C-alpha cells in the first residue's frame, strides 16, 4: 500500500480490506450496531483495514455506528462514497445536483410527489430525502407487504428511461435513485488507489436490483452475501482471524 502519514496506529494489514454494507453490521431494527459488533470491529481492524459503505448520509451512518465512526473505521463512505472519509479525514465530496442539473431533479421530484399523492395509504409513512447522491423514499411495514416500492421503482424506470438514472432497492425500507455509475462501486475508485491485494465486500442486498449487487459482482471485490451481523462476524473470523491466514496478509 502507498505510504500515507494518516494511516492509523495499530490498524491492520496493508494487503486486505474488509468493506461492509452498513446493514450488514446492523440489519435488525432499530438499525444500530451492538456493543458486541463494536468490539468485533475493533479486533478486526487490528488484522485488516476496515470500511463501511452505505447509501445513507453521514448522519444516518453515525446514528447506526456511533458519532466516532470516522475514527473507528479506516474508510467511511456515505451516499455510496460521494461523501468519503479516509483514515479519519474528509477525502472527497460529490454533488448530484451539479452533476444532473436542476431540470432533471425538479422533474423527478415533481413526478414522485404526484405519484405518492395518488397512493391511498397513510401519508405520514412517506419521506422524500434529497441528498447529494440519492432521492430515497421510505416505507413502513404495510407498504413493504404491498410491494409499493417495487411498483414505484418500475414506474420510475419507465418514466425516466434515458435520463442517466439508476434505481436500486436498498436496506429494509427504501429505494435509491442515483446517476448511472454512482452505485456502491463508486467507493472502489477511492480504495483501489491504495493498492490492496484483496477487497472483501459483505452485503445483504446482493441479488440483481439490490443496492449491493453491482459492488458484490464487481471483479475488483470478493463478494460475500450475509443475512445478519452474525454472518458478517463469522465469515470475517474465518477469513482474517486464523493465525495462518494472518501471516499471509501481514
TrEMBL record:
Keyword Metal-binding: yes
Catalytic activity: alpha-D-mannose 1-phosphate = D-mannose 6-phosphate
Cofactor list: Mg(2+)
Superkingdom, taxonomy of origin: Eukaryota
Residue sites binding alpha-D-mannose 1-phosphate per the record: 174, 176
Compartments, record wording: Cytoplasm
Active site (UniProt): 21 (proton donor/acceptor)
Residue sites binding Mg(2+) per the record: 21, 204, 216, 218, 221
GO biological process: GDP-mannose biosynthetic process; mannose metabolic process; protein N-linked glycosylation
InterPro entries named among the record's database cross-references: HAD-like_sf, HAD-SF_hydro_IIB, HAD_sf, PMM, PMM_cap
GO MF entries: metal ion binding; phosphomannomutase activity
Keyword set, alphabetical order: Cytoplasm, Isomerase, Magnesium, Metal-binding
EC number(s) from the headed UniProt entry: 5.4.2.8
Pathway: Nucleotide-sugar biosynthesis; GDP-alpha-D-mannose biosynthesis; alpha-D-mannose 1-phosphate from D-fructose 6-phosphate: step 2/2
Protein's UniProt keywords contain Flavoprotein: no
A GO cellular component annotation in the UniProt record: cytosol
Listed Gene3D superfamilies: 3.30.1240.20, HAD superfamily/HAD-like (3.40.50.1000)
Sequence similarity: Belongs to the eukaryotic PMM family.
Subunit structure: Homodimer.
Functional description taken from the UniProt entry: Involved in the synthesis of the GDP-mannose and dolichol-phosphate-mannose required for a number of critical mannosyl transfer reactions.
Protein's recorded name: Phosphomannomutase
Gene source species: Sinocyclocheilus rhinocerous
Amino acid at each position: 500500500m502507498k505510504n500515507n502519514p494518516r494511516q492509523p496506529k495499530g490498524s491492520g494489514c496493508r494487503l486486505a480490506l474488509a468493506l461492509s454494507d452498513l446493514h450488514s453490521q446492523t440489519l435488525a431494527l432499530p438499525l444500530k450496531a451492538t456493543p458486541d459488533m463494536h468490539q468485533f470491529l475493533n479486533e478486526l481492524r487490528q488484522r485488516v483495514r476496515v470500511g463501511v459503505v452505505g447509501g445513507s448520509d453521514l448522519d444516518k451512518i453515525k446514528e447506526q455506528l456511533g458519532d466516532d465512526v470516522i475514527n473507528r473505521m479506516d474508510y467511511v463512505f456515505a451516499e455510496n462514497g460521494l461523501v468519503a472519509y479516509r483514515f479519519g479525514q474528509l477525502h472527497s465530496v460529490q454533488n448530484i445536483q451539479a452533476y444532473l442539473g436542476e431540470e432533471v431533479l425538479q422533474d423527478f421530484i415533481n413526478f414522485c410527489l404526484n405519484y405518492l399523492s395518488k397512493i391511498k395509504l397513510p401519508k405520514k409513512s412517506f419521506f422524500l430525502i434529497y441528498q447529494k447522491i440519492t432521492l430515497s423514499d421510505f416505507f413502513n411495514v404495510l407498504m413493504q407487504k404491498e410491494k409499493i416500492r417495487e411498483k414505484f421503482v418500475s414506474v420510475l424506470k419507465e418514466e425516466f428511461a434515458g435520463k442517466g438514472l439508476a434505481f436500486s432497492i436498498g436496506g429494509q425500507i427504501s429505494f435509491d435513485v442515483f446517476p448511472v455509475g454512482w452505485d456502491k462501486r463508486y467507493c472502489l475508485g477511492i480504495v483501489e488507489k491504495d493498492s490492496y491485494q484483496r477487497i472483501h465486500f459483505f452485503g445483504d442486498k446482493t441479488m440483481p436490483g439490490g443496492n449491493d449487487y453491482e459492488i458484490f459482482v464487481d471483479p475488483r471485490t470478493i463478494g460475500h452475501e450475509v443475512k445478519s451481523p452474525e454472518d458478517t462476524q463469522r465469515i470475517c473470523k474465518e477469513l482474517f482471524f486464523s493465525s495462518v491466514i494472518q501471516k499471509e496478509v501481514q
